[in-house]
Every structure is written in structure tokens, then in C-alpha cells.
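step 3/5: co-fold with fe (iii) ion
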Amino acid sequence: MPARRIDLHTHSTASDGTTPPAVLVAEAAQAGLDVVALTDHDTTAGHDEAVAALPTGLALVRGAEISCAHGGTSLHLLAYLFDPADAALAEALSALRSSRVGRAEQMVRLLEADGTGVTWEQVQALAGGTVGRPHVAQALVAEGHIGTVGEAFVPDWIGTGGRYWVPKLELDVVEAVRLVTAAGGVAVFAHPRAVKRGRTVDDDVVVAMAQAGLAGLEVDHVDHDDAARAHLHGLARELGLLTTGSSDFHGANKTVRLGEHLTPEDSYERIVALATGLPVLQG
Ligand code: AMP
Ligand code: FE
Ligand code: FE
Ligand code: ZN
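step 4/5: write C-alpha cells
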């Protein structure tokens, strides 16, 4: 049997992707994937729609990407197959989403005050679920200030620390690993060396995460160059962590395609074997 094509990181309209969950699973099958994970930011709201639309031959891993931080550096934690009814984790995700609303509104107020024409009603209409900077960026594109969503992530707009940027609530990353694991889920550190996006953390933080139950590192990712990948492979080997690859698909908000990077079969099997919160659903 040829190796399965496994993409473990995608976003839908339940957060800051532009593809509805039902369309995302259809496109995943069309892209020749055998396994796809839906990992919207701080929410499981897209799961039911993806499950209902799951095409024959595609397996769905239900997950989320959790907003975290360590020592003032923003980080993302992928969480797979956790129990969405786990009270502690569900409350934490709910707090993250609430904070995002107030923070997006504050960013819009700053933009409004400077006469950009961006309004809160406009951004709310663009966000179908978890609101994020890409929705504010879409409004900036609509008002003709920039040409693409990516151009908003600079110091003059809403790049981290930028003129109109406002921070959001983030969970301590080690605490988040514990929460996910306690909810029967499997935690994988998303794009640990995505230096293009801002600061990253040193290996000692990964060691602390591993001690708290971290299962793996996302290595093959668009934001990692060859040196970052080589380093992360070495670190994973040293710490006994599995490694994944994934597209981090966001529809039209990013240029990556579904299946652009893939996860090795043995890593996927380890994730499935570790999870106790939810089963993988086979379409
Ligand atoms: P937020 O979670 O609201 O702080 O916004 C962060 C999100 O913005 C990430 O999840 C990405 O989807 C997106 N993002 C970050 N940097 C870029 C970039 N350079 N180009 C396009 N999207 C980006
Ligand atoms: Fe995103
Ligand atoms: Fe991320
Ligand atoms: Zn992501």
C-alpha cells in the first residue's frame, strides 16, 4: 500500500480560513489526501460541519490550534483528538475566544480613529467564527489600503507590536500541554521555529513542554527553512518526540495549498495511539 497522504493542520471559516469546513473536507479529498486534521484557532466549532460532509475515503482528525505564550513570546499549540467536553480545556478555549473579540474591536477602534474607513461591523461580518487579525486585514484590503492579507502583518499595520496591533489572551504553553493531555488529546508544537512571524522560543522551553506531555513537533511547515527543519528533527530525536508536516491551509488568506507538506505515517499512528478523547472518523 502506498503511504497515506496526511495533512494535520488546516483552518476553516470557523476561524481565520476562508473555506467552510464542509468545503475544506471536499477539497482535501480532491487534493488526494487520505487524512486531514481540522485545527481552527481556539475553537472546535467547525467539527460538526466537517463530520457531516466527510467524503468517502477521507479520515478526519478533529483538533484545534491553541493560542499560547511563553515569556511574552506568542506560540501555537496543535491539539488533536481531545475531548471537546472536557470542562477545563473548553473553558480555556472559551476565554481565548472572548479575549479575541475585545482585542479585535480595539484594533478596529484604533484604525477607525485614523480614518481608515474600517468598521467593527465590517470585521464582524468577515469573521464567521473565531475572530483574528486576518479578518481585520481583509477589511484593510477591502478599503484599498493594502493589496493582500499578508501585507497587513507589518509594523505600520497589525503586525505583532505594530501600530494598530493589540495583544490577546494566551495560555502558558506548558500549562496548555497539560490541559490538552488531561483532556485525552495529543499536543504538537506548531511551527516552533517560524521566525518570520516574530520571536520564537529556545529549546529549553521545548524540553519543559516535553516534560509536561508534549507528543511532537511540527517540522515540515512553510515558515521553516531547511536549517530550522534540520534543527527540529535533531531536537525531536533527542527528546523522543514525533515530527509532523502540514500545510497550515487558510484558504485565500494564505498561499499554501492543502497537502503542501505531509506527516509521516508512523507519526500519525503514534498520535492516534496516544489519543483517548475522540476517535478518528473514517469517511
Ligand atoms: P491572531 O491569531 O489574530 O493574532 O492572528 C494571527 C494569524 O494571522 C495567524 O494564525 C495567521 O493565520 C495569520 N498570519 C500571521 N502572519 C501572517 C502573514 N505574514 N501573512 C498572512 N497571514 C498571517
Ligand atoms: Fe491563522
Ligand atoms: Fe499557527
Ligand atoms: Zn495554523
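step 5/5: annotate
The two ends are 19 Å apart (CA to CA).
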